[in-house]
Amino acid sequence: xxxxxxxxxxxxxxxxxxxxxxxxxxxxxxxxxxxxxxxxxxxxxxxxxxxxxxxxxxxxxxxxxxxxxxxxxxxxxxxxxxxxxxxxxxxxxxxxxxxxxxxxxxxxxxxxxxxxxxxxxxxxxxxxxxxxxxxxxxxxxxxxxxxxxxxxxxx
Length: 155
Hints:
This is Transcriptional regulator. It comes from Chryseobacterium lactis. 76% of the residues lie in helices and 0% in strands. By secondary structure, it is an all-alpha fold. The protein has a domain at 7-78. It is rod-shaped, with a radius of gyration of 37 Å.
């Protein structure tokens, strides 16, 4: 295999070996494709952009991969350690997803309980309002009766 000349070319080699599309790389790193085409492919990659790439693809930070990326010396290693780390990350994500699911189930149960409580309180308020309205009507009838009796006595 011919020696890959620039960091940008080595990045493309890495992407190819990992099965990552260039468009995905541009989106994940926030970089423009014009930096990786034509004369831009031969130009230097700024430290800030390199740091961004290393943050997005942490397996490139591994000692031998970092040396390969920067100098071109050595070999790109996509060994089982990276896969092991990815598997651990996936396991952690599964555990987090499971915990999140449990939390959502608990929240849903609390919501249902509170919702039923609110419905009960609303029904009690409606019942009390109905009794209140009936009491006001009855009171008005008594007041009208007292008023009519008072008028009859006054005459």
